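Backbone-to-sequence.
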């Protein structure tokens, strides 16, 4: 559905229920929401407030939450839409890249077809904003970019998007920087590289080249950094210095950042303050069996943290279904966030920082004027939704129903 309309009987969170100063539950109630021009125009309690001849749809008591933000995915790499194919063993990132090049060149479906199949999955699970990395390297030039751009344009009324021109095979390779420049000119708003030490074999040259590309193209940065321990944190420190020198605070992200999970808590705290000062955010895919960035510490220090799916059924990783809520479930399990408040507040890591309630239990979403990108979900509250990976009944992007149904919506 499109246009202006009412949704009645929407369940919203109103506050926390406390006992002996401890949060033991979430208070909710039914409200009615007016959608106008892709935004939430009114949130009212009384049915008598309805006026005019606008369509009225019934949510039937389903919980309304902000829609999700998929902060790290590779639409161009996926096999989605292809027959089942497991991964081939690889001993290094470089070998994995070579396997991937051969695999993608041999399958019959196009980048456009495969990226479309995956994007449809992401939207069906509630993601209405997607940051996708797109591999740029001499053998394929901008073919991956063009295929993904076609998909994102077709779905521009279903989800917003960002594209990272990503030097998966090394930024310092002959011809790659020029291709990244061209990708930025053709619409990629972010530049990305991977492991300056172990892939490019030159931390300083790689980081300087990356920052130069960003500044020249007025692009943001998203660096894949798998390098462990002090090698990883040293790279982060150098990137933070370059970020401040360029005035690029708030425009840089580090994906994975495994090194933050390898060092002591004291060192991690020091790094968190460095990242906060440089306005560098962290994106984690929460891999099982690997040290991950200390999300709780980073969040407490004011570093922006997001959860992303990363690889979904491709030559790097065979699993994944595109459900970012399921991926967030790993976060609460890793940190044993089992109480009502911790579960509720964990939603911020997949919504771009939005939660219905703040930490004190004050209602902060939805408000009149908010973009009507939201989901109706079969749960009593945020805590239940994230703990039980509840079913999404309807997904809206800027007021448009882009997936599902709910009653007669």
């Amino acid at each position: 559905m499109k246009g202006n309309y009412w949704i009645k009987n929407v369940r919203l969170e109103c506050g926390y229920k406390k006992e002996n100063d401890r949060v033991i539950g979430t208070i909710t109630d039914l409200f009615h929401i007016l959608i106008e021009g892709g935004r939430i125009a009114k949130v009212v309690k009384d049915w008598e407030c309805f006026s005019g001849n606008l369509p009225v749809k019934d949510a039937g008591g389903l919980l309304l939450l902000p829609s999700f933000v998929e902060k790290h995915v590779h639409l161009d790499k996926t096999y989605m839409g292809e027959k089942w194919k497991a991964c081939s063993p690889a001993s290094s990132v470089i070998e994995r890249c070579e396997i991937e090049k051969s695999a993608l060149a041999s399958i019959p479906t196009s980048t456009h077809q495969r990226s479309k199949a995956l994007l449809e999955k992401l939207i069906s699970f509630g993601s209405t904003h997607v940051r996708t990395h797109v591999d740029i390297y001499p053998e394929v030039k901008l073919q991956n970019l063009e295929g993904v751009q076609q998909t994102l344009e077709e779905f521009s009324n279903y989800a917003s998007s960002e594209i990272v021109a990503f030097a998966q095979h090394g930024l310092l390779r002959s011809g790659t920087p020029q291709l990244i420049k061209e990708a930025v000119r053709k619409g990629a708003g972010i530049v990305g590289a991977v492991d300056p030490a172990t892939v490019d074999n030159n931390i300083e040259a790689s980081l300087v080249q990356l920052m130069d590309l960003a500044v020249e193209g007025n692009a943001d940065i998203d660096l894949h950094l798998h390098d462990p321990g002090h090698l990883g944190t040293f790279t982060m420190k150098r990137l933070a210095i370059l970020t401040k020198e360029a005035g690029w605070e708030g425009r840089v992200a580090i994906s994975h950042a495994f090194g933050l999970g390898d060092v002591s808590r004291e060192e991690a705290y020091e790094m968190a303050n460095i990242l906060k000062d440089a306005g560098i955010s962290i994106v984690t895919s929460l891999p099982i069996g690997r040290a991950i960035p200390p999300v709780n510490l980073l969040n407490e220090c004011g570093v922006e943290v997001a959860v992303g799916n990363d690889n979904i059924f491709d030559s790097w990783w065979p699993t994944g279904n595109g459900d970012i809520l399921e991926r967030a479930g790993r976060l609460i399990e890793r940190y044993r966030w089992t109480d009502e408040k911790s579960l509720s507040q964990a939603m911020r890591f997949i919504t771009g920082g939005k939660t219905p309630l703040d930490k004190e239990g004050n209602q902060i979403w939805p408000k009149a004027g908010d973009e009507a990108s939201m989901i109706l979900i079969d749960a009593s509250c945020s805590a239940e939704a994230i703990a039980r990976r509840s079913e999404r009944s309807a997904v809206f992007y800027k007021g448009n129903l882009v997936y599902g149904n709910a009653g007669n919506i």
